[in-house]
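Hi R.,

As promised on Friday, here is the backbone we talked about, encoded as C-alpha cells. Could you run it through your design pipeline when you get a chance and send me back a sequence?
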C-alpha cells in the first residue's frame, strides 16, 4: 500500500495538515479551483513562495514558432501555449514591519482544505513573525460555478496575543515572473511577459488592468472590488501601474480583533471586443458579484454543488482512499468542464500549464463520458467547441490531401499544435473520438436538436475523413494504413484495430444520421450515395486477427514484431520514451497505453467473451502504462474478465495519480483524464455499465476490498441509482419514465419507487495475467 500520505483521507475534503515546500507545486495543482473558464492554481495568497504561479482563462494563449531541425510539408509552423494571465489572487500581508512569508519566522500551524461540497479552498494558519508577533490568517477562496467570470477570496487576519499593526496589499499582478521550466519535453514552455499593458485603473476599492497578448492579439481584462471590515481608523489607498494595481489596507488590531477583506475578481477576454467594451464587461461582472456579495456567492456555490452531487455522486464502502479520490476526481472533472462553454477542456483542465494547456482526445474519450452521465450540458458545449473549430479542421484535411475534417491532435484554438507528426497528425483516431462523443451524448440525452445542429456536421465531416484516409484493396477490403493508434509506442501502423473499429462506428453513425435528416444533410452536401460509400467502407473494414494465437492484432502484423526486452529494462528506464529512441519502440511489441484493450471497452460488441479474456492476457505483459490514460482502461477490462484484484489495483492507480503524484508531474497540472478514469473504472469496471442503444446494461461485480459501491447516472431525462454489494445489485429509478435495463444479460424493468434487486453471479476463474517486470500496478 501507499506509505507516505500527503493528504488526510476524508470523504468530502482534501486536507493538507502541514505545509511542505518541497511539494508546494504539486499541492497547487491539487488545490486548484476552476469553473472551466477561470482557473486559479492553489498558490499561497501572499504569492510567495510558489511552485508555479498560475491564473488562467480558457482560450487565452500566445503563439510561438515551432522550430524543426528538418522541416517537412504540412508541419505546423507555430504552436499555441496557455499563458499566465493577470493574477487576482494576491493578498500580501505586513505584520509590524515584517512580511508574512512562511519561509521566515515560525509557522505554528498551516492547514488547507479543499471542500468538495462547498466548492471552496480554506486556509488557516498561525504564524509568529521573526519579531515575535503571533497572528492567525484565515483565507477562503472560490472560483464561482454560477458567475462564470468571478473568483473571490475572503481574507481575515487577527493578532493572537498582542496588538499588531497590519497592512494588507490586495493586488492584480500581470506578467508575473515564472520559474524556469525543468527541461521535461512535456512541460509547458514558459513564455516571458506575454501581456502588453493597455489600461490600468484604481479608484476607491476598485482595481482594473487591461492587457493584450503580443502575437495572438487577445485582450484580457481583470478587475477587482473589495469589501473591507476592520476596526475604526482602518485606512485604504489604491494605486495602479501598467502591470500592477493595488489596494492597500492598513489597520492596528487588538488581539482577537479581525481585519476582513472580501475580494471579488472579475475576468474577461476577447479577440474582438474593444478596450472600453472589455473594461465595461469586467466592471459589470463585478457589479453582479457585488450584488450577491461573498455570502451570496458562497450560497450559490453550495447550491450548485448540492445539485451536482445529487446527480453524480459515487459512494464506495471499504476503501476510504478510493471514496475520497473518486469525489476529488469528479470535482475536478466538473471544474474543468462546467462553464467552459464552447471552449476546449484541456488535458490538465485549468490547473497548470502542462502540455501547454492543450486539449487532446482525452476530452472526448475520458472526460466527456463522465460528464455525459452527470452533466450532459457541459458535453454539448464541449462538442460545440469542436464544431466551431471545423474551419481549421477542414483546412488541415485539405492540406493533408484528405476530405472532410482532420481535427488536431493537440490544440487550444483549433489548429494542429503537434510538431511531432508520428504521434500527432497520424493519430487520426481523435476524429473518431469526437464522433463517438456525439453518438454517446445523443444516445444518453435523446437531444435531437443537438443531433441536427451539431452532431450531424461533426459526423459527416469525420466520416468523409475516414473514407478518404482509407482505401478498398483489390478484394474490396477497406484498410486505413499508416496511422497511429492510442499506443504511442507504435506509430504509422497499418489497420490499427482500435482506429478501424472506431472509424467503422463513425462511418455507420454518420450514414444513419444522413438518412434520418436528409434535408439538413443536403445542406452539408451529403446524400445517399455518399452515405452508401461510408457503409461500404464500414462493412469491409479490415480487423487484423492472428488465427494461430487466436488474438486480435493491435495493428496489422503487430504480433509478429520482436518483443521488447522487458527483462533487460531497468525500473529507472521508465517512461521508456525518455530513455530509448522511438525508432526502437516502434518496431517492437511494447505498448505505452491501452490500445487494443481500449477497443475492447469502446467497441465491446466486436469481441466475444473468450477473445476479450485471451486478448487481455496477451496484451497485459506488453503494456507498460507510460501514460496516465492506461490504468483506468485496464481496470475496466480486468473487471470485465473477472480479474477483480487486478482491476482494483488499476483503479487505485488511476484514482491516486494526483493525490499521490504517482507520475511525479502533478506539479504541471492534474491528469484530468485519469481523474475521470476513476469514475470509469468504478462505474464501467465494477459496475459493468455499458450503453446499449437507447438503454443501459450492467454486469456488476465488486472486488474483495469493497463492501458497497453506489452511483447515480443521468439517462434520457431519468435519474438511475445503482447500488452494488458483494451479493446483489439494486437498481432504482429515482426520477423519470420506466426503463428496461439489463443485469448480467437479463432484462429488468425499472419503475418509480420500485427498486429491483438481483443477485450478482460469482466471477469466472482465470489465471491472472502478467505485467512487464517493474510495471505491476503501484498497489498490488
Ligand atoms: C498520451 C496521449 C494523451 C496525452 C495527453 C500522452 O502521454 O500518450 O494519449 O492524449 O498524453 O494526456
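Update: got your reply. Pasting your designed sequence below so it's all in one thread:
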Amino acid at each position: 500500500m501507499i506509505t507516505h500520505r500527503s493528504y488526510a483521507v476524508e470523504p468530502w475534503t482534501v486536507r493538507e495538515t502541514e505545509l511542505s515546500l518541497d511539494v508546494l507545486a504539486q499541492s497547487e495543482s491539487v488545490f486548484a479551483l476552476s469553473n472551466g473558464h477561470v482557473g486559479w492554481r492553489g498558490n499561497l495568497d501572499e504569492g510567495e513562495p510558489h511552485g508555479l504561479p498560475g491564473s488562467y482563462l480558457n482560450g487565452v494563449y500566445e503563439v510561438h514558432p515551432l522550430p524543426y531541425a528538418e522541416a517537412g510539408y504540412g508541419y505546423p509552423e507555430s504552436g499555441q501555449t496557455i499563458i499566465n494571465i493577470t493574477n487576482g489572487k494576491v493578498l500580501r500581508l505586513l505584520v509590524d514591519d515584517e512580511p508574512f512569508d512562511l519561509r521566515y519566522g515560525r509557522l505554528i500551524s498551516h492547514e488547507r482544505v479543499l471542500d468538495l461540497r462547498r466548492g471552496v479552498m480554506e486556509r488557516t494558519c498561525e504564524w509568529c513573525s521573526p519579531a515575535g508577533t503571533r497572528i492567525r490568517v484565515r483565507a477562503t477562496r472560490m472560483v464561482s460555478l454560477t458567475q462564470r467570470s468571478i473568483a473571490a477570496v475572503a481574507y481575515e487576519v487577527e493578532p493572537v496575543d498582542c496588538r499588531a499593526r497590519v497592512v494588507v496589499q490586495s493586488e492584480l499582478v500581470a506578467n508575473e515572473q515564472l520559474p524556469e521550466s525543468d527541461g521535461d519535453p512535456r512541460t509547458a514552455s514558459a513564455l516571458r511577459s506575454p501581456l502588453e499593458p493597455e489600461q490600468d485603473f484604481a479608484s476607491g476599492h476598485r482595481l482594473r488592468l487591461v492587457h493584450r497578448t503580443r502575437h495572438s492579439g487577445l485582450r484580457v481584462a481583470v478587475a477587482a472590488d473589495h469589501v473591507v471590515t476592520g476596526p475604526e481608523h482602518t485606512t485604504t489607498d489604491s494605486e495602479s501601474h501598467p502591470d500592477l494595481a493595488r489596494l492597500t489596507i492598513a489597520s492596528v488590531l487588538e488581539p482577537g480583533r479581525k481585519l476582513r477583506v472580501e475580494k471579488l475578481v472579475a475576468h474577461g477576454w476577447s479577440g474582438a471586443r474593444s478596450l472600453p467594451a472589455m473594461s465595461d464587461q469586467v466592471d459589470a461582472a463585478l457589479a453582479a458579484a457585488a450584488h450577491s456579495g461573498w455570502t451570496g456567492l458562497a450560497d450559490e456555490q453550495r447550491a450548485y454543488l448540492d445539485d451536482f452531487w445529487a446527480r453524480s455522486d459515487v459512494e464506495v464502502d471499504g476503501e476510504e482512499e478510493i471514496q475520497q479520490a473518486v469525489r476529488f476526481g469528479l470535482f475536478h472533472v466538473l471544474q474543468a468542464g462546467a462553464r467552459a462553454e464552447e471552449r476546449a477542456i484541456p488535458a490538465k483542465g485549468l490547473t497548470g500549464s502542462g502540455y501547454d494547456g492543450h486539449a487532446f482526445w482525452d476530452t472526448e474519450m475520458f472526460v466527456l463520458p463522465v460528464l455525459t452521465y452527470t452533466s450532459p450540458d457541459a458535453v454539448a458545449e464541449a462538442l460545440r467547441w469542436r464544431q466551431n473549430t471545423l474551419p481549421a479542421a477542414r483546412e488541415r484535411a485539405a492540406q493533408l490531401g484528405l476530405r472532410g475534417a482532420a481535427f488536431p491532435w493537440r490544440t487550444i484554438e483549433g489548429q494542429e499544435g503537434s510538431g511531432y507528426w508520428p504521434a500527432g497528425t497520424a493519430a487520426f483516431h481523435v476524429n473518431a473520438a469526437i464522433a463517438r462523443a456525439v453518438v454517446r451524448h445523443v444516445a444518453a440525452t435523446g437531444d435531437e436538436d443537438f443531433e441536427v445542429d451539431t452532431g450531424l456536421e461533426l459526423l459527416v465531416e469525420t466520416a468523409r475523413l475516414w473514407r478518404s484516409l482509407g482505401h478498398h484493396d483489390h478484394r474490396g477490403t477497406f484498410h486505413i494504413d499508416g496511422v497511429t493508434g492510442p499506443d504511442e509506442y507504435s506509430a504509422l501502423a497499418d489497420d490499427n484495430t482500435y482506429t478501424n473499429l472506431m472509424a467503422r462506428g463513425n462511418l455507420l453513425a454518420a450514414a444513419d444520421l444522413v438518412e434520418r435528416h436528409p434535408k439538413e444533410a443536403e445542406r452539408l452536401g451529403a446524400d445517399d450515395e455518399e452515405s452508401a460509400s461510408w457503409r461500404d467502407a464500414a462493412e469491409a473494414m479490415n480487423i487484423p486477427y492472428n488465427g494461430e494465437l487466436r488474438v486480435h492484432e493491435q495493428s496489422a502484423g503487430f504480433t509478429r514484431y520482436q518483443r521488447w526486452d522487458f527483462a533487460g529494462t531497468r525500473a529507472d528506464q521508465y517512461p521508456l520514451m525518455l530513455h530509448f529512441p522511438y525508432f526502437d519502440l516502434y518496431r517492437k511489441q511494447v505498448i505505452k497505453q491501452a490500445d487494443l484493450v481500449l477497443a475492447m471497452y469502446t467497441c465491446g460488441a466486436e469481441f466475444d467473451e473468450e477473445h476479450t479474456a485471451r486478448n487481455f492476457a496477451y496484451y497485459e505483459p506488453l503494456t507498460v502504462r507510460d501514460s496516465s490514460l492506461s490504468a483506468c482502461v485496464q481496470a475496466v477490462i480486468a473487471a470485465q474478465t473477472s480479474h477483480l484484484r487486478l482491476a482494483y489495483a488499476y483503479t487505485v492507480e488511476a484514482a491516486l495519480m494526483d493525490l499521490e503524484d504517482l507520475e511525479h508531474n502533478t506539479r504541471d497540472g492534474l491528469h484530468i483524464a485519469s481523474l475521470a478514469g476513476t469514475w470509469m473504472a468504478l462505474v464501467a469496471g465494477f459496475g459493468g455499465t455499458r450503453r446499449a442503444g437507447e438503454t443501459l446494461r450492467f454486469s456488476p461485480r465488486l472486488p474483495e476490498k469493497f463492501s458497497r459501491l453506489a452511483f447515480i447516472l443521468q439517462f434520457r431525462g431519468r435519474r438511475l441509482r445503482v447500488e452494488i454489494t458483494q451479493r446483489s445489485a439494486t437498481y432504482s429509478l429515482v426520477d423519470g419514465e420506466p426503463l428496461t435495463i439489463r443485469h448480467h444479460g437479463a432484462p429488468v424493468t425499472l419503475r418509480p419507487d420500485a427498486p429491483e434487486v438481483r443477485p450478482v453471479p460469482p466471477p469466472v476463474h482465470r489465471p491472472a495475467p502478467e505485467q512487464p517486470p517493474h510495471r505491476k500496478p503501484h498497489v498490488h
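One thing I noticed while checking it: The CA atoms of residues 329 and 675 lie 4 Å apart.

Thanks again,
M.
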